[in-house]
Amino acid sequence: MANPKEQAKKVDEETEEVVEETAEAVSEEVEQMSAEVEEQEQPARPLEEVLGQAEKAYAAFMDAQRQVASAYRTNEQQIARAYKRAEQQAEKSCSEAIKEAMQARDEAVTAAAKACDDTVSQAERAYKKTKDQMDKECAARIEEASKKREEALAQAWQLREETVDQAWNIYAKLSR
Hints:
Layout: H1 4-40, H2 47-174
Helix pairs in contact: 1-2
């Protein structure tokens, strides 16, 4: 769409052309009347003839003035229409920009929500994996500790048995 200032300038140029054409037409008409007056070269003109020419010149002037006023009204109407078109285009552009901005925002929010969900899901998977691994390690340590306890108890029992046997052997030697 053309710039409203350019349209207004174009309308002003058209108005100037109409005004110039009207001024030229009036100027030509006045020149014709002046030429007619000079051609007649009568030393004394009747008053009615001079008044008639003056009325014609005045009528031509008034017609030119009406044409100029009409041209200005037309110019004003064209400028108003150009402004309305520019206003509608600006409103349309603004609405489209708002729509695009809202759409971009919605897409960004959706992407952020998806990223958040993905991150939470990854964190939950990492937590579960770590918990499972720690549960396995804990169970392995408990089992190892239980084995060591059993071994320690078995060794302690063995030592006790050996000590009791030695004690009975010593007692048996002494009691004899």
